[in-house]
Amino acid sequence: MTVRNRGALAAMAAGVAALTVAALVACGSQPADDVGAEEASALASATPNPPAAATTSVPVTAGELPADAAIVPPVRLVIPDIDVTATVNAVGVNQRTNDFEVPPSVDQIGWYRYGPGLEAGAGSVVIAGHVDSAEQGAGAFFRLRELDRGDTLTATGSDGKARPYRVVAREEYVKTRIPLDRYFARDGKPRLTLITCGGPFDAKARRYRDNIVVTAVPA
């Protein structure tokens, strides 16, 4: 799944300074109207992120994880309402293409390893995955657009602990307009951010126009 996005992510971890996010995953069907947008926005820090460096034209999110924060990667995601049970792999950004490097198998999903882990006391834990593939069919996030406020999901960490979450928002953005600094932030209240693609499919470009973003908070 490749989702092209002009946005860039800054990762101040493991010596990585700034990463450009590109493609994510996709689903052709239109979701219902956005829900919970105000609540999702309120979870982010009230302090605006630093402006992007002069050499970039994309938002940059700066910030270090707390020194005492154990980074616990998610390894499994279960969303009963849309029949998802998926393996989560730690991923970054493809240095050659500047794409968010989602696992090639559409039944698996990727956790942005330069962001917070499940034990972080602040910030957005980002998981993205394919919706579908011409070769492999429906992906793990094929029905992500169906989630609504109040739906529940469980993220299990590498420590074996299952952590419940509750959906508070579902939003759709044209990919060039998605506020990446909000969804990849390391500040604000702890939350889980699920991203895939949606909207109309551009057959010539072979990609979907939009991104669908689901925000969930610890239950």
UniProtKB/TrEMBL annotation:
Recorded GO terms, molecular function?
hydrolase activity
Question: Which Pfam family name is an example for this entry?
Answer: Sortase
Keywords associated with the record: Hydrolase, Signal
Q: Where is the signal peptide?
A: 1-22
Coiled-coil spans are: none
Question: Which InterPro entries is this protein grouped with?
Answer: Sortase (IPR005754), Sortase_dom-sf (IPR023365), Sortase_F (IPR042001)
What protein is this chain from? Sortase family protein
State the superkingdom: Bacteria
What species is given as this protein's source?
A: Micromonospora cremea
